Amino acid sequence: QVQLVESGGGLVQPGGSLRLSCAASGFTFSNYAMNWYRQAPGKEREFVARISNAGGNTNYADSVKGRFTISRDNARRTVYLQMNSLKPEDTAVYYCYVRSLSYWGQGTQVTVSS
């Protein structure tokens, strides 16, 4: 069955960096665009970034442009989110999402605080 397992979250100070990973299984990973979403406490889940199936096209939410980078390794069936210059407002649970399969991972918590 489809599985998406996120990792890499944690507590980081403002201005710091984290790299999230999402390991996929149960489907032909290289055929699908992949997305990262996030949900902060008391807020709706929101789009963060998307990468096309081959990795040639990426899209970002305005709030993270220039700070976050999405990438993928199809041989490792993994999508990444490199997050730099983190701000307290980036605090959220981050989810991996395959839109075409309507499948979400379980999420990984990112907390940005001094």
3D structure, described in words:
The protein has strands spanning 3-7, 10-12, 18-25, 34-39, 46-51, 58-60, 68-73, 78-83, 92-98, 103-104, 108-112. It is mainly β and 114 residues long. Strands 2, 4, 5, 6, 9, 10 and 11 form a 7-stranded mixed β-sheet that branches. Strands 1-3-8-7 form a 4-stranded antiparallel β-sheet, with no helix packed on it. The model has no long low-confidence stretch (mean pLDDT 97).
SSE layout and pairings?
Elements: E1 3-7, E2 10-12, E3 18-25, E4 34-39, E5 46-51, E6 58-60, E7 68-73, E8 78-83, E9 92-98, E10 103-104, E11 108-112
Parallel strand pairs: 2-11
Antiparallel strand pairs: 1-3, 3-8, 4-5, 4-9, 5-6, 7-8, 9-10, 9-11
What's this entry about, in short?
With 114 residues, the protein is mostly beta strands. It is built from no helices and eleven strands. The chain is 0% helix and 50% strand.
Task: State the main characteristics.
114 residues; seven-stranded mixed beta sheet; four-stranded antiparallel beta sheet
Radius of gyration: 13 Å
Number of strands: 11
List the secondary-structure elements in sequence, H or E. Answer: EEEEEEEEEEE
Residues in helices, as a percent range: under 10%
Distance between the termini: 40 Å
Supply the number of helical segments. 0
